[in-house]
Write a structure and sequence with these properties.
Blueprint (H helix, E strand, L loop, with lengths): L11 H9 L7 H23 L9 H36 L6 H30 L1 H9 L7 H26 L5 H15 L2 H17 L1
Helix pairs in contact: 2-3, 2-4, 2-5, 2-6, 3-4, 3-5, 4-6, 4-7, 5-6, 5-8, 6-7, 6-8
Length: about 210
């Protein structure tokens, strides 16, 4: 993938080729973000296919509100996929800084710590955005046509996977941080995000399967 070309401008094939190559980016962080963006896109699609349908007219305003939120989260997750690649580049550059003298080594270590913290912040925002999709899935599962309700279920599964994937990316960066106050605060945020995650996702899946089999 050319450095000047953004993820969203890549063809799917080109992105997957870059992903499978020896290049360190794109990697798990940007894949997690794009998984969340795809979940958001599925919700927007379901909304678009539902708006204007007479049988769901009473939910029209709510569905438009869901789509506005899903589109905002889709845009955010796409930006975060780019941010993940950018921060990895800065981290790689920090590791290449000279450490010939004690002053050089101290400066290099400070730069590594600063960018590693940024590398934790990006997947944390990914996890938060993906978690915000799940309530939209719950609301939409009973407010769309039965033939497209499976797409809501896929969105829920992808959202949960995005949160879990992003958490792994946070944890790998936290392991290298010296700022234990930041580490504790971030782990507390992770814990909050994971509370009820499986139950909420499983609830959506149950709603979807009830609609499919009903």
């Amino acid at each position: 993938m050319a450095e000047s070309e953004s993820v969203k401008d890549q063809s799917v094939g080109a992105f997957l080729d870059a992903l499978a190559s020896r290049a360190p980016t794109p990697g798990g962080g940007s894949v997690a973000a794009l998984s969340g963006a795809m979940a958001a896109g599925l919700l927007s699609m379901v909304c678009n296919l539902t708006i204007g349908k007479k049988q769901f007219a009473e939910y029209e305003d709510e569905i438009r509100s869901i789509m506005e939120r899903s589109e905002a989260l889709r845009a955010e997750l796409q930006r975060l996929a780019e941010d993940d690649i950018a921060v990895f580049g800065r981290l790689a550059a920090a590791y290449k800084l000279p450490r010939t003298t004690d002053a050089d080594a101290a400066s290099r270590q400070s730069a590594i710590q600063q960018v590693t913290r940024q590398a934790s912040d990006v997947p944390l925002r990914v996890a938060q955005a993906a978690a915000a999709l799940l309530p939209l899935c719950t609301a939409l599962a009973s407010r769309c046509a039965r033939l497209i309700v499976s797409d809501v279920g896929v969105a829920a599964v992808l959202s949960r996977a995005t949160v879990q994937s992003a958490v792994m990316n946070i944890e790998i960066n936290l392991a290298g941080l010296e700022d234990q106050i930041y580490v504790r605060e971030t782990r507390a945020q992770i814990a909050d995000l994971l509370i009820g995650l499986n139950e909420e996702t499983d609830g959506v899946i149950a709603l979807v399967r009830d609609r499919i089999n009903g």
